[in-house]
């Protein structure tokens, strides 16, 4: 049986491609791999399944699309994402398997897929990797690449190819209902706490940034790392850079450049 493998992000797809190329997985080598993109842990969700407009606008602001000439690129990326989701839904016969860890972004996408495939639940399967980090985090192209950790991740993915499991109709219904509830809540930030999603706000990220910034200059990427380590704020560098820019615009932080555009930007708290 051929499965369409759905993964969250390019790094996860690269790792899965490596695993499929291993001799032990020759039987699965013809399976297609589908990549979805969008960090569902942040930004508006309410009308996401009807239109990508709000998501496009959100990421254009976060990534400084206007200044970087990326507006159309982001619009096109979401169009591709939506087309991929519709293709998965339209195919009434093909088996779909979603790869995920316990990471909030993966769990949100699992719920979205359950919602989109709720009328054909027999098609949805899963491969659950026991990790709190995204599958592709230790891909070879990642700046924090570690050879041993990458090998372990590749082994886990390879083992996963032999552990495809169907998702029960009851569980799919529950996941789809959770997705609808999350869309209605429409919080700024979504965090996963022991299988339950907790809501957050950008104001909380702002408060943490002001707390962990100092009056001495530091790279904004260092501040982002501090937030993830100490402030229970598992958000991306892009989100932290955007919030630093917003805080600087109101005079609460000082920047020596634009963190949305320049990765080397430094930040400090105004004295």
Q: What characteristics describe this protein?
A:
271 residues, alpha/beta, Arc Repressor Mutant, subunit A, 2 domains, 5-stranded mixed β-sheet, 3-stranded antiparallel β-sheet, 10 helices, 10 strands, DUF1835 domain-containing protein
Question: Explain this structure to me?
Answer:
Helix 1 packs across helix 6 and helix 9 crosses helix 10. It is globular and about 65 Å long. Helix 5 links the parallel strand 3 and strand 4. It contains 10 helices and 10 strands. The protein is an alpha/beta fold and 271 residues long. About 2% of the residues have low confidence. The longest helix has 20 residues. A 5-stranded mixed sheet has the order 2-1-3-4-5, sandwiched between helices. A 3-stranded antiparallel sheet has the order 8-10-9. It has a two-stranded antiparallel sheet with strand order 6-7. It starts with a strand and ends with a strand. The protein folds into 2 domains: 183 residues, no CATH class; 69 residues, Orthogonal Bundle (Arc Repressor Mutant, subunit A). InterPro entries: DUF1835 (IPR014973), DUF3658 (IPR022123). This is DUF1835 domain-containing protein.
